[in-house]
Design goal:
The chain is mostly beta strands. Helices cover 5% and strands 38% of the residues. It has three helices and 19 strands.
Amino acid sequence: MRNQTIRRAPTTKVGVFQEKVPFNTELLIAEQDLDQMYTIEPIEDLGTPESLKPVPGCQVIYRLVGTGDANVPILGASFNKEGGSADFDTDLNAVNLLSMWYDGAEFWYSVSNFNPPPVPSSECMAKIGDLGLGPDVLMVFVNPAATGYISPDDPPVYATDFSIVSAFDVISSIHYLGTEQLIYSIAKDDGGGAPGVWVSNTDPRLAQLEFDCDSLGQQAIWIQVDDNNSLTSPAIFTYVMNQANGGIGTACNEV
């Protein structure tokens, strides 16, 4: 049986960029321009206050944006580079997602980049209180960059490995005052900025998409919800990150 680990976006804790990376929180996303040569190192166990000691399984994501200069972060010697990692892209406005995690024994990192970056729908960032929504509106709010990990089978069958991302993993909240049973739909982008084939279910965990080794990195998806009656939410664009489970399996390196 495949083991997929999905970090649900609503648990995200947003923090400021710092060169000393803490691994004592569930998930931290910080953004920083690559305006200088930063040295990024983990806060390790030895000599560290109990409150800052690394917790096995914790992941940190930095969103590092190129400035057109040749500034590439220097990863400290305590980090191991995951085999499928990309190189940093220093082009102007290029976005690099630097994923770092602690497996209980060692620290790992992997880089995914894209240029130019896709922009999630404005609804993704809206707050219910800002919109003054009435009872006859069905609105879904999502957070981008939920993360799916590909894990190899045991014994390995690398060509068929995949990770799963569901509507449950991406949806942050829903504004709906009705009483009907909601239907959740999720779709991959068709490559032209529109939803592809919708996958729907009344259980958001079962409205799910599969991503394999041929679709690593940032993957555009769409989310929509309706109440099987009269209300349908806007189709909201966001994205997920699909990564090989570095440090634990090497599925995508063996295909």
